[in-house]
Amino acid sequence: MTTATAPRAAARVVDAVKVYGGGDTAVRALDAVDVSFPAGRFTAIMGPSGSGKSTLMHCAAGLDTLTSGAAYIGDTELGALDDRRLTLLRRDRVGFVFQAFNLVPTLTVAENITLPLDLAGRHGDREWIDALIDVVGLRDRLHHRPSELSGGQQQRVAVARAFAGRPDVVFADEPTGNLDSRSGAEVLGLLGSAVREMDRTVVMVTHDPVAAGHADEVLFLADGRLVDRMEAPTADRVLDRLKAFEVRT
Ligand SMILES: Nc1ncnc2c1ncn2[C@@H]1O[C@H](COP(=O)(O)OP(=O)(O)OP(=O)(O)O)[C@@H](O)[C@H]1O
To answer: Is 10 a domain residue?
Structure first.
């Protein structure tokens, strides 16, 4: 007899509470959130401004700590790690893509892509990095500096860098926020291909229903709580759902 098992979580938070400040001005940015980000899936997090999206991402990724509850990358509980182990975990098992690209201006494209591996003293898998360079379409730009690239190209470097060490999960914070719609669509296509063709895991915070439409599932936050989720989203359905929240509140 076979038993259905839940997909393995690349990252998750359990009963996650985050309170900023104290006393009368305390803000409950996360209010008992349980979320699992399954391995091999592309999950988007949406919600109104101030709903806790960035807080959730930062706590799940080990960039910030929870007030109570637990955050895990794979089976590793982040709260149990000292600062040094947490830094190593972020470097070796988590990838990041930020709105502002965050490339090192003095390094070439090739050097930026392998930077996390170089810092870790890892050689990385040459074939994997080569495949990534082709996927992101930067083979003829490898010796350029970021300032010689368009915004879309810079974000494609950041995407390749995020996946270079085959992390358990890549967190992307508004990855298309600084891009025109065409470059944004390319970057979203790359994130989707990494998940579907290269068996990677992506968690993306976005305001943009079109971006969320590239994900396998969208989670909706409001007032620090998980209020809804949508499988196989399209931009139109996400937009309708967001409008429904606005009417309700
Ligand atoms: N460092 C901080 N100190 C105090 N309050 C904070 C801090 N960071 C976030 N908050 C508050 O926590 C709540 C959630 O913020 P968060 O940035 O997670 O929301 P968000 O959904 O990502 O918003 P946005 O879409 O505007 O980026 C907000 O009320 C915000 O003002």
So the answer is: no
Q: What is the mean pLDDT of the chain?
A: 93
Does some domain include residue 13?
Answer: no
The pLDDT of residue 243: 86
How far, in Å, CA of 120 to CA of 117, rounded?
A: 5
The number of folded domains in the chain is 1
Location of structure tokens 């810079």: 154
Element (H, E) at 172: strand 169-173
Domain CATH number, residue 178: 3.40.50.300
Site to probe by mutation for ligand 1, drawn from 20, 31, 206 as the one with most ligand atoms within 8 Å of Cβ, is 20
**Is the CB of residue 194 less than 8 Å from the CB of residue 166?**
no
Range of the domain at 150: 40-52+91-248
In a domain, 133, yes or no: yes
Residue 68, φ and ψ in degrees, nearest 5: -150, 165
pLDDT digits (tens, 9 = 90+) for 69-127: 999 999 999 999 999 999 999 999 999 999 999 999 999 999 999 998 888 888 768 88
Residue 116 covered by a domain: yes
Report CA(55)–ligand 1 centroid distance (Å).
Answer: 6
Closest ligand 1 atom to Cα of 56: 18
Q: Which atom of ligand 1 is nearest to the CA of 57?
A: 18
